[in-house]
Design a protein that fits this description.
By secondary structure, the chain is mostly helical. The protein is built from 11 helices and no strands.
Length: 295
Amino acid sequence: MEAQLNQKIAVVESPKKRRMKEMASRFFQNKMAVAGGIFTFLLIIIAIFAPVVAPYNPSEQDYAKFLQSPNAENLLGTDELGRDIFTRIIYGARVSIEAGIISVGIALLIGIPIGLFSGYYRGVLDEYVVMRFTDALLSFPPLVLALSLAAVLGAGLQNAMIAIGIIFTPNFIRLVRGEVLSQREREYVTAAKASGISDFKIIFRHILPNCMPPILVQATLSIAAAIISEASLSYLGLGTQPPTPSWGAMLSMGQGYLGDAPWISLFPGLFIFLTVLSINLFGDGLRDALDPKMK
């Protein structure tokens, strides 16, 4: 009896396991996505263990090492205050990753519930309030809107993350709403309603899990965009404030020394490029792996 029960469970679980294996296979066939994922993972590990990895204190000043070029002691050189560029880039990774994850988290926290209820119930509130407000926010260039919000909220990393989260919220509202509009007409939703299951359970227990693949892909790609937005705000003085290291702020401080010490701006810009590229490659690979049309 027990053997038969285990066999039935295996039969039930096998389609799910098969789909997981197929998705993993599609993802690992994309070498660029794997490379992007490895670089992103390593960067996160380095950022978490920054005090162990970094050779110096990021705020430690040494005027005897003023504007030194890359050497054995300072791998990426020093800035105008004698601070180690390599150390500040490592700690700057913390700021960039934190800003990306928290900003997108804010957008998800606001956008998913609004998109779910708006798409499921529709009606006047959806058509004339939610969607028109979303269209109004999307009509502004993202960076201009982020600058305006950051200027109103005040300079600082926390306010920058809130501003970035707000500008990404309409994207998730529209994405989730569109997915719910397609899912609400499916047979499993009709069956759940006929069984007397409450709308709340239908939305969060049945519809939301089926909307997660595109949400995960969009969230991954949005983290890369959030990192660029945070660097832009910090570059303009509205994001991370000194002496906290930030890639965008390092670019800003190094622009006055491009002729004499280009490494001050070169390496932070290079890490912004590599990080955003890696996350985008990983997100593209994740999208292809989760897309059923790729079967």
